[in-house]
Amino acid sequence: MNDLTSTTGVVAVAGCAVALIALATAVRLTVQLRRVRRDQRAVLGDRQAVDLVAHAAGLDDEFRALHTYVADAATKLHERMSAAEERLDAAVTYRALVRYDAYGEMSGHQSTSIALLDAARSGVVVSSILHRDHARLYAKQVRDGQGADVALSPEEAEAVQLALAGGGEAISDL
Q: Hey, which bits of the chain come out as E strands?
């Protein structure tokens, strides 16, 4: 015991204490380093390179490429949508059917005029005039809600007006 109280013994005990503190610090730092490496693998993946700056630059490049791809896809989608809207504008938007007795014979309103118009209020009116002995079919072009080349009959004009008003079928006594 005398040896521990001597200068040499005190230095030896102090050296052991410093060694134990260094060992504890080394163990704590090893645990922290393992956690940092685990977190780094979560960010970098299983790559061997551990250069965070290169990884960040790669992510930036990939985000820029993704942004370009999404912008191109959005542009193409916008073009397709515009083309679809143009096609829809040319489709039949307004329609109406008017039934009437063209000759006043009480034949049960067998004559008809149908208006088929697009979003620009242009299209066609087709009339079927029925009589006991014969039937006639007429087609007239409509532009801007009016007869284009040939004037519309009252029934055809009614069919156009009914179509533009959102009506469907009407029986007319004209």
A: 94-100, 111-117, 123-130, 135-143, 146-147, 169-171
Distances (CA, A) of 97 to 67, 94, 116, 148: 52, 11, 9, 19
Q: What is the CA radius of gyration of the chain?
A: 45
In angstroms, rounded to a whole number, what is the distance separating the alpha carbons of residues 67 and 65? 5
CB 143 within 8 A of CB 122: yes
Q: What pTM value is reported for the model?
A: 0.53
State pLDDT tens for residues 11-60: 989 999 999 999 999 999 999 999 988 887 777 776 665 577 777 888 89
Can you list the alpha helix ranges (DSSP code H) found in the chain? Answer: 2-5, 7-44, 52-89, 154-164
Cα(154)–Cα(162) distance, integer angstroms: 12
Residues forming beta bridges with residue 89, ordered by sequence position: none
Give the C-alpha separation, 82 to 68, whole Å.
21
Rounded-to-integer distance, Cα 97 and Cα 168, Å: 6
| Angle of helix 52-89 versus helix 7-44 axis, rounded to 10 | 20
Distant-in-sequence, close-in-space partners of 108: CB < 8 Å, separation ≥ 6: 101
